[in-house]
């Protein structure tokens, strides 16, 4: 099992090098898009917690040249074509306002791959991660257009399953958790995807769709 995970890590690591992505994370967003078409018809996108920038590279490459993309992180991000960069903490009002001003209109998509420094204490890590998701959602609530989509990294667990998905379903038509093949199976990471903003309260797709492995496995075991 460990060998398999390592091989997969190498596979996406090598692919990222070949394809010129700054991080193997790029394939997580690409696999989510292949499954849920979240980039379809997107003209305005916001990438929260974006450094080193591989998700923004995907947005820059997959969205039309006319697209308006804003990326923000605590860390500085090297320039990416067609992406406005902001350095700041998304949990602060100052940065939230800067992102909203830079977006200069309503967004079709907000993504957040944010991860705090992991302590290894699962409940604490899940809690801090939930704070980041809350900050991401607060920004989305101010900036997403009706019908827009939201993607955020989550740590799988009770908080995520019961509270977050339930709450998001009040705002989105469809909410589900996906685990892309590019996300290591040994990691608690998964992604919550809300589609159809303000078209809710909507449907919760139960379980975790494991995507990008040449088929969809529904994993309902956590
Ligand atoms: C896994 S990395 C993101 C990778 C990125 N999606 C990519 O593809 O290159 C997680 C990022 O979250 C950022 N982060 C964590 N907490 C943050 C906060 N409060 N505000 C802004 N960024 C934050 C970290 O600085 C880190 O760069």
CA-based gyration radius? 16 Å
CATH fold-level topology:
Rossmann fold
Which CATH architecture?
Answer: 3-Layer(aba) Sandwich
Secondary-structure element string: HHEHEEHEHEHEEEE
Count the helices. How many?
A: 6
- Please state how the strands of the largest beta sheet are arranged side by side: 3-2-1-4-5-7-6-8-9
The percentage helix is 25-40%
* Class of secondary structure makeup: alpha/beta
- Shape from CA axes? globular
Number of domains: 1
What is the CATH top level name? Alpha Beta
Describe the biggest sheet? Answer: 9 strands, mixed
What is the number of E strands? 9
Instruction: Report the span from N to C terminus.
Output: 18 Å
CATH superfamily: Vaccinia Virus protein VP39
Extract low-pLDDT stretches. Answer: 215-222
The percent range for strand residues is 25-35%
Structure description:
The chain has 222 residues and is of the alpha/beta class. It has a single domain (2-219), classed as Vaccinia Virus protein VP39 (Rossmann fold, 3-Layer(aba) Sandwich), CATH 3.40.50. Helices cover 37% and strands 29% of the residues. It has six helices and nine strands, in the order H-H-E-H-E-E-H-E-H-E-H-E-E-E-E. S-adenosylmethionine is lined by residues 22-23, 25-26, 49-55, 73-75, 89-91, 113-116, 132. S-adenosylmethionine binds next to helix 3.
Brief synopsis:
With 222 residues, the protein is an alpha/beta fold. It has helices at residues 2-19, 26-36, 54-62, 93-103, 122-143, 158-168, and strands at 44-48, 68-73, 83-87, 107-112, 144-155, 172-180, 189-197, 203-211, 217-219. Helix 4 crosses helix 5.
